[in-house]
Amino acid sequence: GGPRRLLLVSNSTLHGGGYLGHCQQHIQSFLGEKVKRVLFVPYALHDRDAYARTAREKFESLGYGLDSIHESCDPVEAVRKSEAIFIGGGNTFRLLKALYDNSLIQEIRKRVLEDGIPYMGSSAGTNVATISINTTNDMPIVYPPSLQALGLVPFNINPHYLDPDVKSTHMGETREERIRQYHEEPNTPPVL
């Protein structure tokens, strides 16, 4: 296949800004003028209709049409026909389970890695672009058949990573300590 075209965003909203406001120039530069419609995957949140409305409003304001995969009678065919894919944030376990339940893992991999269509992920959508969801911050509210994800990049990502606050009196484990524990297991990939 051709080169991977990925835009992996840690979060969809920054304090004081609107949905994807902090990265909208990157989105327009990334998608360019050839892409006219984006296929949105809202599976990480429970209220998919509301999530699709939010995403549609933002993408239309940037000049792109948006189709939500949950409104399609055939999600696999929707992926096959897509010009670009955007998977939004929410709960990573819920998202990955829905991708498996709808037989989308291999279809998305093929479209991105072989056909070269643009893939954008935000938070949970970034998590599932990696090798596995082993390094997500989310709670396992549902159980996907595997923790293996799309494998669009040869590493894992920890969205929302924060360095420890040296002035904090909180004595709990930090994200850095959790990731170090992950790497105590053999053959774990790098974590960005």
TrEMBL record:
| Reactions performed catalytically | Dipeptidase E catalyzes the hydrolysis of dipeptides Asp-|-Xaa. It does not act on peptides with N-terminal Glu, Asn or Gln, nor does it cleave isoaspartyl peptides
Q: What is its EC number?
A: 3.4.13.21
**Keyword flag Transmembrane helix:** no
**What's one Pfam family here?**
Peptidase_S51
Q: What does the record list as coiled-coil region(s)?
A: none
Localization recorded for this chain is:
Cytoplasm
A single GO molecular function, which one? serine-type peptidase activity
KW DNA damage (keyword) present: no
- Superkingdom is Eukaryota
GO terms for CC? cytoplasm
Q: What class of enzyme is it?
A: hydrolase
GO biological process terms on file: proteolysis
Q: What is its main location?
A: cytoplasm
List UniProt keywords, sorted A-Z: Cytoplasm, Dipeptidase, Hydrolase, Protease, Serine protease
Q: What job does the chain carry out?
A: Hydrolyzes dipeptides containing N-terminal aspartate residues.
Q: Which NCBIfam families match?
A: PRK05282.1
Protein family per UniProt: Belongs to the peptidase S51 family.
Q: What is this protein called?
A: dipeptidase E
- The scientific name of the source species is Thalassarche chlororhynchos
